[in-house]
Amino acid sequence: MKQFRLNYLLFTLAFAVLLASCKKNDPVFTLPTQGLYVLNQGNVTNTNSTLTYYDYLNKTTAPDIYQSANGKKIGDTGNDIGIYGSKMYLVVNGSNVVTVANAKTAVLTKQITLASPRFVVFYDKSAFVTSYNGTVSVIDTASLAITKTITVGRAPEQMAISNGKLYVANSGGLDYPNFDKTVSVIDLTTLAETKKITVTDNPISLAADAYNNVYVLSLGNYGAVAPGLTVINTSNDVVRSKPAVSLGYNIPMIAQGDYVYFPTADNKITMFNAKTQAFEKANFITDGTLITNPFAIGFDNLTKHIFVADAKDYNSNGTITAFDASGKKVYTVNTGINPGKIAFINK
Questions:
Q1: For 278-309, how does the pLDDT look when each residue is reduced to its tens digit (9 = 90+)?
Q2: Cβ neighbours of residue 217 closer than 8 Å, sequence gap 6 or more
Q3: Which among 16, 60, 149, 250 is placed 20 to 30 Å from 165, CA to CA?
């Protein structure tokens, strides 16, 4: 017990020194949110993924808190991050692992081996992880054991939860030009696929609103089939509409309140009204702030700020910028290469 207390004290002191030595950023505010993490993908095969931590209260940035806490790198192509309870899940695609760490300290708890894992969502004490081998793995968040593997479509990407169902984008992204064009529907009670819904080719991004809709952004087939948006009514699992939209190759998306946010081909952040099912604004950003390559979008439920990550030239360090509800810049934080996902940690 004494040894445990000593180790814990030493770690606490080391962590405090780490934050105290971090770089100061623009002034912000003091709120119940402790801070945010940015999972930076790095460059594929370069094993240079990093985890940036920004502390709201101390206004400090730790460029790679994971390596500082564990003495080793995250791995190759960190693709997704999710926080559930006291644990943080890092989905590291190129290294074929889901890394589970303490959500407040980033100290490693366990690594779970999966084939080309892509994204993670959570529901009722389970983590659901898509893998490019055409499956969704169900992980018990207490034991961290894989309890079930569900077969879906080809090369599944993002997921969304609505009406007690899990929706999975089956991209077929490894089979150019013969992409998949379906969304799998999984009953979260039986953990069985009940239906596949046809959407535009190569679906990647999913988001669920508060009005029983799931939004699907697809990249098309890079030829005759253009990228597109599909809206699925989750009450009956049929396609509600396919609003016309111009999309680029980066299509992060969030649904928050009455709005859905995603980037268009000209790198603006469009606002789609979920209640009226019509486009609200061509560009959410109202103060002229330019985003070169929008790579991730996040929303802090406590501060009500919307964050947009900018990958810049994809080889240099990027940034994330916080905007208020009116679309005006509040502050910017420097990140690592290709900031691809944002997660928030509360006190």
A1: 999 999 999 999 999 999 999 999 899 999 99
A2: 203, 204, 205, 206, 227, 228, 229, 247, 251, 253, 262
A3: 250
